[in-house]
Amino acid sequence: DKLAVLQTLASTVKRDPTAAHYMFQDDPFLIPRNAANARLYSLSKEAGKNAAKYIIEQFPQYFDKTFAEPNVTCLMPKTLAPQIEGVSEEALRERIHFRRVKDSVDLFDQLVQAGTPVSLETTNSLLDLLCFYGDGESTLEKQEEQKEDLEEPGVNASEQKAPKRQFQRASQSFGSRWRENNNAERIFKIMPERNAHSYCTMIRGMVKHGAFAKAYDMYMDLLNERHKADVHTFNALITAVPYLKERFVERWELAKVFLNHMVQQEVQPNLLTFNASLKTLRKCGGVGRSMALLVVKEMEALGIEPSLATYDHLLFIFYRGADLSSSGLITEILDDVEKRSFTPQDLDDVNFFATAMQVCCDLKDIKVAYRLNKAMEKGDNWKFLDMDRLNAYWSKFFSLLCMMEQIDVVLRWYKEMSLSVFYPTPKNILDLLQALDAANHLEVVPSVWEADMKQLGFGRRHDLLQELLSLMSRERHPEEIQLAFAKCAEDIKAFHEQTGREQAPLDWTGSTLGYISLLFSRVGRTQDAWYVMLERFQQINRIPSDQVMDEFLTCAKQTSCPDEAIKLVKLAASLGLPASQRLKSRTEKEFELSEKQK
Q1: Which residues lie within the region annotated Disordered (predicted)?
Q2: Would you give the DSSP letter of residue 16?
Q3: Angle at CA 103, nearest 5°, toward 99 and 109?
Q4: What does the longest C-alpha to C-alpha distance in the chain come to?
């Protein structure tokens, strides 16, 4: 193995919990601070690679010098321009090889019009191309059209192209669909002879692009012509079953028909056949739960090892909307997963770890979650988690830790994970605050505000601010902690009062004002507390609670501010509050008032 030395060296290096994800290391300025920025930066980096690749492929004449020794062929420009001129089958094969959909169709039509016969092999290759792209344009052709759009000057040209770009965005959002009587269907109909490959290609193309009923009709035509389908075609048809039948029983019956046809046609099933069957059983309700394990046993009988997608389908079938009291199935799955290091075999393999961690959260089973995490870190299994799935996986794991573990363990994991392998979501911060509350470790709250909520951009999240202020103001703490709480309250007040073009001001609520006033009062910041009560409460037409006024009166007494106490009594009296008489009595009793003040 050429990479053996590098792999051995890499195995000696552990992850640095203080460093960001490796893809952001090139530019420290662009190290993201939250999940949204991480997604944006990672997509931007990939877009930059694609842009560089586009420039190299479109302008290869500027990259004719080779400085690398030995030459790295994959990094050099590829010759994608057709070299064969004229109307011939060789030219058609070349354009098919370069994936030029429109040029290939035009050249094929020219050959047909000229009466030049096209071989069955070449026509099947053209069908492969058309069915893969859904009769649309390949990526290369789209890039060339965009290049032409950019080269067209003038305002009128941009006005003409605007609706087209809008349509392209809409079509991309819904995915390419199979058009009625498209080029693939047209060419298939005029073929002088068709073999099994022709029918199989059309079936797979129709399934891929959503024409499920047409795919089934095409399969019936294949049988009528006494052809045999290949395993990939059967896999596609089994995947299409939920879109052909509505009732759960009918879906599984149709899937069994296809499986029986495989036996009759002596087609050996592969891993993707069983995964397609399980994927269909996901949409069969109770029928799926009764048949899924039989499918797995059939796999074992044929000596086919399950992939991560197999286990993902099983977890979905047995833990989605069913009784979650038992963790037996996921434990059995982990027994097998722990023994292996997986390689990608199915597109759905990437979903397993996130799905399994969600099951652990639903079961509230932290031991199984630890086992799952250990299996994920084994070998190259971690590569199945891209940026989005990685964040979802760790977010669920951390929520489970907050729910089930001791606070010291939670904080240790949080320190190792936060901003290095995942970016906490607002729910994670809420879970952390609730875990701190349950463990009576509220002295950590100010550091959560400073180091996490502000840095992650959650300083304007109303639900988090309410939870944070509620915890800090619920009861009195030692003076040092109360000062830290007051500093947090001052920051939150600043967030509400800041005005900028890019951000709308945060709306005050009565509870928020009450919490902030309490925190100011408990550290002797009488003027700040009075400003909140007089100015802000009146601004939003709210009335401070009895607790807020009592705490303010206590603060005024500690700071020897009888004038502020009198203002409070006048405010309560002007609002007609029942507590005004009690506040008046407290003021007369606890303060030394002059005759004028009395």
Answers
A1: 141-175
A2: -
A3: 125
A4: 117
